[in-house]
């Protein structure tokens, strides 16, 4: 179990009420289950009221039960298999609540990402990327989707953007063989962290490139090789990693860089609009809302 959480429980154990002692014991023995229980369900399970559960969380130094639950979730994310994640969701969330639960969780993820992001670090990273001659991007597993999204839009801003095909370590390094001090690498990975992404960041750092890590914690292995660490929350929704937080952060990064390079980007977009019109790339949709 999380060392910090264990210490908090031990430090406050003497002041616990009988009900709080029951909660502490259950958490120590079943923290993997508690991480996905509501305060009400935890109270029912151990035989105490929901308010007792909430008071327990504040008693050991958290802002409330959600903060305690989040601490447990972050701690176990690297340890759970996909099958275990699916089973936990099935056991804790009724089928008819899955839609609301998933959307509510995503809203909370974006809120917490906004609250925890360092503005200074964000704008420093944007400055470093703006100055880069070539931008490399790597994202493995589910992070590949948002890495591809990022590469698509950055290719409208920079002359040279390369989305690294994270197949094997040898191929990754082969694609990065020319990276140097004038270039930048953006690495994206969340629990369970990609070893390939970590090695790519290390290689780029060793070559003197500017390295930006988009991850969930300063304890992430990516952070060790990045000059700029952009933190975004990424929680589990069953066996799926919710990436709305990282995607929202990436959207902000794209817009910020585009504004910093506004003159160049405007010309590129004007040229593209002309090409799209000339070659009929997109279907034109007529507004028929006023038709009678």
UniProtKB/TrEMBL annotation:
<protein>
    <submittedName>
        <fullName>MurR/RpiR family transcriptional regulator</fullName>
    </submittedName>
</protein>
<keyword id="KW-1133">Transmembrane helix</keyword>
<keyword id="KW-0805">Transcription regulation</keyword>
<dbReference type="InterPro" id="IPR001347">
    <property type="entry name" value="SIS_dom"/>
</dbReference>
<dbReference type="InterPro" id="IPR000281">
    <property type="entry name" value="HTH_RpiR"/>
</dbReference>
<dbReference type="InterPro" id="IPR046348">
    <property type="entry name" value="SIS_dom_sf"/>
</dbReference>
<dbReference type="Pfam" id="PF01380">
    <property type="entry name" value="SIS"/>
</dbReference>
<feature type="domain" description="HTH rpiR-type">
    <location>
        <begin position="3"/>
        <end position="79"/>
    </location>
</feature>
<keyword id="KW-0472">Membrane</keyword>
<feature type="transmembrane region" description="Helical">
    <location>
        <begin position="239"/>
        <end position="259"/>
    </location>
</feature>
<feature type="domain" description="SIS">
    <location>
        <begin position="125"/>
        <end position="263"/>
    </location>
</feature>
<dbReference type="InterPro" id="IPR035472">
    <property type="entry name" value="RpiR-like_SIS"/>
</dbReference>
<feature type="transmembrane region" description="Helical">
    <location>
        <begin position="135"/>
        <end position="158"/>
    </location>
</feature>
<keyword id="KW-0812">Transmembrane</keyword>
<dbReference type="InterPro" id="IPR036388">
    <property type="entry name" value="WH-like_DNA-bd_sf"/>
</dbReference>
<keyword id="KW-0238">DNA-binding</keyword>
<dbReference type="Pfam" id="PF01418">
    <property type="entry name" value="HTH_6"/>
</dbReference>
<dbReference type="InterPro" id="IPR009057">
    <property type="entry name" value="Homeodomain-like_sf"/>
</dbReference>
<keyword id="KW-0804">Transcription</keyword>
<dbReference type="InterPro" id="IPR047640">
    <property type="entry name" value="RpiR-like"/>
</dbReference>
């Amino acid at each position: 179990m999380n060392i910090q959480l264990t210490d908090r429980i031990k430090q406050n154990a003497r002041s616990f009420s009988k009900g709080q002692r029951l909660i502490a014991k259950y958490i120590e023995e079943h923290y993997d289950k508690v991480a996905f229980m509501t305060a009400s369900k935890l109270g029912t399970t151990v035989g105490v009221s929901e308010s007792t559960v909430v008071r327990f969380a504040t008693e050991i130094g958290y802002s409330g039960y959600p903060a305690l639950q989040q601490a447990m979730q972050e701690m176990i994310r690297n340890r759970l298999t996909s099958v275990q994640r699916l089973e936990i969701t099935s056991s804790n969330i009724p089928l008819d609540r899955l839609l609301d639960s998933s959307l509510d969780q995503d809203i909370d993820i974006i809120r917490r990402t906004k609250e925890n992001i360092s503005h200074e670090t964000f704008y420093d990273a944007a400055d470093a990327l703006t100055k880069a001659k070539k931008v490399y991007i790597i994202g493995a597993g589910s992070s590949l989707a948002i890495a591809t999204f990022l590469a698509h839009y950055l290719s409208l801003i920079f002359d040279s953007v390369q989305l690294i095909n994270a197949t094997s370590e040898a191929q990754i390094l082969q694609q990065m063989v020319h990276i140097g001090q004038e270039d930048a690498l953006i690495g994206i990975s969340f629990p369970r962290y990609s070893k390939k992404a970590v090695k790519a960041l290390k290689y780029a750092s060793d070559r003197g490139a500017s390295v930006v890590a988009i991850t969930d914690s300063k304890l992430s292995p990516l952070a060790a090789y990045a000059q700029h660490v952009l933190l975004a929350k990424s929680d589990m929704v069953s066996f799926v990693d919710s990436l709305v937080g990282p995607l929202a952060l990436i959207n902000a990064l794209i817009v910020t860089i585009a504004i910093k390079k506004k003159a160049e980007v405007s010309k590129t977009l004007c040229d593209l609009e002309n090409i799209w019109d000339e070659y009929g790339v997109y279907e034109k949709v007529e507004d028929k809302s006023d038709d009678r």
